[in-house]
Fold this protein.
Amino acid sequence: MADEVLTERRGRTLVITINRPEARNAFNLAVAQGLADAMDELDDTPDLSVAIVTGAGGNFCAGMDLKAFMAGEVPSIRGRGIGFTERPPRKPVIAAVEGYALAGGTEIVLATDLVVASKEAKFGIPEVKRGLVAAGGGLLRLPHRIPYQKALELALTGESFTAEQAAGWGFVNVLTEPGGALDGALALAERISANGPLAVAVTKEIIVKSAGWTEDEMWSRQRELITPVFASKDAMEGATAFAEKRAPNWTGE
């Protein structure tokens, strides 16, 4: 994995850091590839339950590296976008946001499942101000994460919004003091990873996918997903641990 993206395992949590602080973590192709590799590691490692995406040096991601773009680089991966914006992982991802999360930075946040942000964090999809369109998922996801009329206003004006505004709209789960976003995300991740990793992954999958299911198919579709979980070693371990009044030892199997 390139130095532009760093990974560190913290128990059952994979911490993924965009590591271009000199460029406010603007993403280029190396960042996109590093994010894709990290998400593959998350989904391919049975005893990992959750990931956190954050940025080095006090900013999350200030958007696309325009210098690389002007030099002819396409800073995305076909079928995956900015690492995972077009194909998020099966397991949950938390964004830990400090400073700027603008343009593609906001689109990366929108591709995650939960958001922990510093009170000083700023979001926005300002592409229209440069004659561009927010093509990394901002227009597709923002209207489903904040009120529709507000999403339309922000997309058409290109204006930024604060973490406190975002929390009021339900977009940010946890607000922290400046410098505390990663610690807040780690605390949230610990609460999630205390649970069975298979059950957590399938729970996310059902919530995400069921929005497109009809009433006629939703129970059968859910049954297909939950049957392997109920037959898993972790399900047996959960029941045994409950009976023995101890913490379960999850394996993700």
